[in-house]
Design a protein that fits this description.
Elements lengths: L1 E3 L2 H17 L5 E5 L6 H9 L7 E5 L1 E3 L10 H13 L6 E2 L7 H9 L5 E5 L21 E4 L2 H10 L12 E4 L2 H5 L4 E5 L5 H9 L18 E6 L5
Parallel strand pairs: 1-10, 2-3, 2-6, 3-5, 6-9, 9-10
Antiparallel strand pairs: 4-8, 7-8
Amino acid sequence: MRVFDEADVLGAALAEEVLDVYERSAGKFLLGCPGGRSLVSTYRALAARRPELDRLVVVMMDEYVGAPPDAHFSCRAFAELELAGPLGLRADQVWLPDAADPGAYDDRMEASGGIDLFLLASGASDGHVAFVPPGSSRDTRTAVVALAETTRRDNVATFPRFESVDDVPTHGVSVGLATIAAARAVRLVLHGAHKRAAATRLLELESFDPTWPASIVHDCVDAEIWVDRDALP
């Protein structure tokens, strides 16, 4: 575990690590990226450095089934706003899973050499990672999943334009836990007091617990949990 004074300091340090790993790589560099709030400070710190990232491929973790591309909750819209636009990425440098053919996503990653670095976040109330719900198998790959009620409630906080949980889609297409564990490196980020319970649960565990999907981090190689002081138990 690495501890930082605040979210922006954490984001700046993680952006530097992403660039360092990128510079030491060759060929396509696949960066697994969540939507939502947890990695925004990292994405913005990365964009502020104005790096040349012509080999980068942003591999988004999930998308709501049936979400219009310009919907306020769309992961595609998030990727354009926080990653593709600020980093000057081409359309072919941003990937999203397709609900019509989920399995092709893992095949595409493997054909391109696999994920070099996976950035992760944990759901505040249930430990969901991407849209993977509590109770999921360690062996899951990209698939269409039903969002847990707890995950949908978390998403009301993530997307303030949702007026209630009833506005949150019920299904998403999401990478699986096996997809994440196959990455060469993993960094899981938790910041803010609202993630304190999630940090407590993760740090109590020493191995994967299916009731808390983000605990897959304990089964990954070269894995670290990055927190700010507000998230510390």
